[in-house]
Amino acid sequence: MLRKVLIANRGEIAIRILRACQEMGIATVAVYAEDDRQSKHVRLADEAFLLPGSQLSETYLNIQALIEIAQKSGAEGIHPGYGFLSENAGFSLACRENGVVFIGPSPEVIEAMGSKLLARERMKAAGVPITPGSPKLSSLGEAQEWSEKIGYPLLLKASAGGGGRGMKRVMNAEELPSAYDAAMRESKSYFSDDTVYLEKLVTAPRHVEVQILADTHGQVIHLGERDCSVQRRNQKLIEETPAPNLPPDVRQKLLDAAVAGAQAIGYTGAGTFEFVVQNNSEPYFMEVNTRLQVEHPITEMVTRVDLVKEQLRIASGLPLSYRQEEIRFEGHALECRITVEDACQNFRPVPGLIGRYEEPAGFGVRVDSMPYAGYEIPRSYDSLLAKLVTWAPTRAEALARMQRALKEYTIEGVTTLIPFFQWALNVPAFAEGHYDTGFVGKYFEPSHLTMPPAPTQAESTPHHREVVDVEVNGRYFQVALYLPEMSIHSSANTTASAPKGPASGKSSRKDSSNQSQIPAPMAGTVVKVAVEAGQLVESGQLLCIIESMKMENDLLSPRSGTVKKVPIQAGEKVQAGALLVEFEA
Fold first, then answer.
1. How far is Cα 489 from Cα 230, in angstroms, rounded to an integer?
2. Residue 264 CB coordination number (10 Å)
3. Which segments of the chain have a pLDDT < 70?
4. CA 163 remoteness from chain centre
5. CATH architecture of 517-583
6. CATH assignment of 4-103, among 3.40.50.300, 3.40.50.20, 2.40.30.170, 3.30.470.20
7. What does the angle CA 389 – CA 359 – CA 485 come to, to the nearest 5 degrees?
8. Which fold does the domain 132-200 belong to in CATH?
């Protein structure tokens, strides 16, 4: 068994891995960037090392630095978690060449499955059904030729992509040029590879995946399927297992295809085979995620198998703890990804300072998390704060437990998706288990949510907080009052009071139809500027694209008019409120 492991990640997954290690008597080494110095994983690890630098390429994506820290600390293995370098064949190879165990598949398997194009070829050879598609595209003209052969609607996909990055829907020929440009740009930015291809878009599909484990002794098992169809921006929001209302024969096709595919490529470790299911009958292979998935806890809840501990056993050369016939599937589990996003603003990331923070608890409730009261959420990473998981003997009970847990979850100072989840779980299509990947677009409108008031300045600057008990008509409430420091230290003749927010639960918005200066709604990096001085633009036209918390955000013009000034350029970092575009008055 490995004796010391370096965790090359951050946030809740780093905490999840180090806890599993510590329970197995394995010493843990954390790494952190400067803006993660106060993160919980740094405090919980046995050792922690700073990754100098301000860019991701200098910190969590710095292979040489990670290998050096592993050697310096005496770590025998490196667990990459998910995201960052978890599916980087070069990282796996570097570990091998430097005598460090990479806790994941071999570099050869990662490279083969990291290319969606190559993965499609390998799966087709193994008898796994795949969707019609194109080879590697070398130009927009080639993309246009293949789009006519395959037929619209289409998916333009980054071959090296994952997590919805570099994937764009193309409904007609007019949308292809901009989608092609965006997919290549995202792929180059996130994966240092701008290879893209086309795939037939399966309309109204379910997104169903199969968890597998494979050891170095030739044993491959599956741990059931998960439905991940509730998504925004092609990224998952709610997952559950087992997939509701999935016909038994389709389920068996998925499970058999995943095991056969893993055997065909000599897979080792934990992995996920992802499929789209059309009309609840025809499954098509999408990709293999050669790592642990964000949603792995729901599988653990219904099987009672600790996937991280199995990863560590496999990496240590030990056989799996279970045979297929020993896996028991009991009950139902759901996961809601608690992110700092504003669902009413197209799921825009909204990092900030967390005030009061209280997690739900009780039988059948699990929270994998990283924040705490007073934690300042960095802007350099994705928007995930925690994963809220519930388990119960039946789906109906698991849903009820999730609603209860969401109601108990308190995160003050930032906007999260908790109100969205409370709405989504009550939509009849979801409650009855009849939904697909179009769920959000089909059913969600911002008016469906009563959002709490946007965090005030007092919640993001030094303040004094009072929890005031209030009773109204026999009902008990706790009301938080934020008193700015200047109010606390004001003269005795001045009465301190909390800043006034919007009177209703909806955020107040100014009429921007005549707005001449367009500010950045969030801090981030400008990845594209779409207008220039002197240009006449229409209302709703793209002004620029800003990347914030690993999401690209299209900023559209709130008015028609002539552009006077564009004081930004691609690659520039901007703060919230910074001037992006100025119109002629």
1. 49
2. 14
3. 162-163, 451-466, 468, 473-478, 480-513
4. 7
5. Beta Barrel (2.40)
6. 3.40.50.20
7. 145
8. Dna Ligase; domain 1 (3.30.1490)
Q: Read off the pLDDT of residues 485-520 as tens digits, 9 standing for 90 and up.
A: 443 333 333 333 333 333 333 333 444 567 899 999
Distance from C-alpha of 408 to C-alpha of 386, rounded to nearest angstrom: 14
Work out whether strand 269-278 and strand 579-583 pair parallel, antiparallel, or are unpaired: unpaired
Catalytic residue among 291, 337, 395, 401: 291
Token pair, residue 157, equals 């996909």
Q: What is the pTM of this model?
A: 0.82
Q: Specify whether 291 is catalytic.
A: yes
Cα dihedral 236, 242, 247, 250 sign: positive
CATH of domain 341-463: 3.30.470.20
User: Mapping DSSP to helix (H, G, I), strand (E, B) and coil, where does residue 454 land?
Assistant: coil
* CA distances (Å), origin 439, targets 342, 388, 531, 532: 18, 20, 33, 37
Residue of 366, 361, 341 whose CA lies nearest to 351: 341
Q: What does the buried/exposed string (b/e) look like for 195-215 if buried means 16 or more CB atoms within 10 Å of the residue's CB? A: bbbbbbbbeebbbbbbbbbbb
